[in-house]
Write a structure and sequence with these properties.
Chain lengths: ~325, ~270
């Protein structure tokens, strides 16, 4: 980790709002992200992540509120903001008919880098993204992971101080995903780059982010380091798998003491409990008395961001589900 | 990468070459044009129809109508058809399909996030098209020479022939670009070739204007291609004469003003921050 600067924030928003028609896609977002931080912006599809990131990148105008990036107002001075930011949006945006090195050179020319600086810069980036011989092949021959890494390199040609990544690993296999994570981490530690990352993968935010903001329905509903957020959820998570009707199992255990929350998915029942080791025998004993229910698996684990997410973003849906059950 | 290196990289202020606005625009334009030409070279399939269609129509028109037409009008029908072939070669050739691919892939957005001149994004592609259509004129000229067409205006006339054809081609490119920028839809751009048909056929493609009658005569008189064809034919068949050349130049300029005006309006909408 680089030291996170005490200077002015790299990204700062006040009551940022963006409406599409009647819908407020982003509804009063306040952010303050110090230079050198990796900030994970987390939320389900349609929560307002991409809309926020597009406003910060000068691709979308705020309806109201302000956003300062690198101290510059995105609405008043988008041109200067663009010189300070690197952007890799969802789905690597590349010209498949050109080679990796052609695209890098083009990018350097578009930013009017002097040719010697461009040369040096591209050499550095090529080492960084480790794309090797493929550089002189057309992009259409690249794998998904290579495209993402090239996309990342293109975003960095002009040496921006702030990097925006919108779902940088969606659609990637686990190996490529890990490679992109390594890249991002390296850029942050070696170059002190501020990274604003949107993702719907909690694991990704957990792995990379210094701080996480969770957005739901256009509002930030929780913010803090991954550990802080996990501590908020409660102490332990008991994961239960049963043969038989999970609704019946749910009804049987919901009334046990010390169970703070029950979440159900197709495959498992998740219990937030204050004391996991004490809860497991109680749960097992209670379910043993229920006809037609057989516990196939019961496990204790620490909370993940997933649990945080369900807690804060999914609270409404979880409640509806509980009522229905 | 060593620690010292990254520190050096970090402390370096972003270096940019400073250019006057005009030189900056030219730099951007050339950058865009070069990429567009590189793309065109790698996609020969997009250009091949523009090579084959004019030769096909030339052979068919001359072969099927040549005898009859010469007998009735006393024209050298081969020379008469050469300008039609060149119009077929250059009309509707553009990189608008590449532009629409950029828009749908998000690469266009990446370009918008650079300090590049927005105008250069369009004009650069048109500059590439201008080079392309000049190149596409050449096989048609060679074909004409092979079948014995001679220019009444000589070498300079051939040059004027290529230039006027190329400017006509350029004037027409605004339409597909306007559609590409307005819709961002590859299908709509592909369909824009339909525009070409009324221009190319409701004119003096087969017989001179004197021989047209009824509604077709009226439409042909309104069709700018009629004047471009007359200008091109005058270069091949009559010699230097101001009237037809002026007519061709005016028709080309008018179409260019309309199509490029539409394209620029569409560009302005496309690059505006929504």
């Amino acid at each position: 980790m680089t030291t996170i600067g005490d200077g002015p924030p790299a990204i700062e928003t006040h009551d940022l709002v963006r409406s599409f028609g009647d819908k407020r896609a982003v509804d009063g977002v306040n952010l303050s992200i110090p230079a050198g931080e990796i900030y994970g912006f987390l939320g389900p599809n349609g929560a307002g992540k991409t809309t926020t990131v597009r406003m910060l990148c000068t691709l979308l105008r705020p309806t109201s509120g302000t956003a300062l990036v690198s101290g510059l107002d995105v609405a008043d001075d988008p041109g200067s903001v663009r010189l300070n930011i690197g952007v890799a949006l969802q789905e690597a945006s590349l010209d498949l008919g050109q080679t990796g090195s052609e695209l890098l050179e083009l990018q350097a020319r578009l930013f009017s880098l002097p040719s010697d600086v461009a040369r040096r810069r591209i050499d550095e980036l090529v080492t960084l993204i480790d794309i090797g011989d493929a550089l002189d092949r057309r992009v259409k021959t690249y794998s998904g992971g290579m495209r993402r890494r090239l996309d990342l390199a293109l975003a960095l040609v002009h040496e921006p101080r702030i990097l925006f990544l919108d779902e940088p690993t969606s659609g990637l296999d686990p190996v490529s995903r890990r490679e992109v994570w390594n890249e991002v981490r390296r850029l942050n530690t070696e170059r002190g780059l501020t990274v604003f990352l949107t993702t719907q993968y909690l694991e990704e935010a957990d792995e990379l982010a210094d701080r996480v903001g969770i957005i739901a329905d256009g509002k930030i509903v929780a913010e803090g380091s991954p550990d802080e957020l996990k501590r908020k959820v409660g102490k332990d998570v008991v994961v239960l798998k049963v043969d038989g009707d999970p609704q019946v199992a749910h009804a049987a255990i919901a009334s046990l003491p010390d169970i703070e929350r029950v979440d159900m998915s197709e495959h498992e029942i998740r219990l937030m409990v204050t004391n996991g080791p004490a809860a497991i025998p109680q749960v097992a004993a209670r379910l043993a008395l229920v006809d037609g229910i057989k516990v196939t698996e019961i496990a204790l684990r620490r909370p993940t961001l997933d649990d945080v997410f369900l807690e804060v973003a999914g609270r409404a849906t979880a409640e509806t589900r509980a009522v229905a059950a | 990468m060593t620690a010292e290196m990254s520190v050096a990289v970090q402390s370096a202020a972003p270096v940019r070459v400073s250019r006057s606005p005009l030189m900056g625009f030219i730099h951007d334009l050339l950058t865009v044009a070069r990429r567009a030409l590189r793309g065109a070279r790698r996609e020969p399939a997009a250009v091949i129809p523009s090579l084959i269609i004019p030769i096909f129509f030339f052979a068919v028109n001359v072969g099927s109508l040549g005898g009859v037409a010469s007998a009735i009008t006393g024209l050298d029908y081969t020379a008469f058809q050469l300008p039609v072939a060149v119009i077929f070669a250059v009309t509707g050739v553009s990189r608008a399909n590449a532009l629409v691919t950029d828009i749908s892939s998000g690469y266009f957005e990446r370009l918008l996030l650079t300090p590049i001149s927005r105008l250069a994004l369009l004009i650069g592609m048109m500059a590439a098209d201008f080079v392309l259509v000049i190149l596409l004129c050449l096989p048609v000229l060679v074909m004409g020479m092979l079948v014995g067409v001679t220019f009444a205006t000589g070498i300079l006339g051939m040059l004027a022939f290529v230039l006027l054809s190329a400017f006509w081609g350029l004037a027409f490119t605004g339409f597909p670009y306007a559609i590409a920028l307005r819709t961002g839809n590859p299908g709509a751009v592909a369909a824009s070739f339909i525009l070409f048909f009324p221009f190319a056929f409701l004119t003096t493609a087969y017989v001179p204007r004197e021989a047209l009658s009824g509604w077709l005569a009226t439409v042909a008189a309104l069709n700018p291609v009629t004047y471009v064809l007359e200008a091109l034919r005058s270069l091949v068949m009559t010699g230097w004469s101001l009237g037809p050349l002026l007519g061709g130049a005016i028709a080309t300029t008018l179409v260019g003003a309309i199509s490029i005006g539409l394209a620029l309006t569409a560009l302005r909408r496309r690059v505006r921050i929504p």
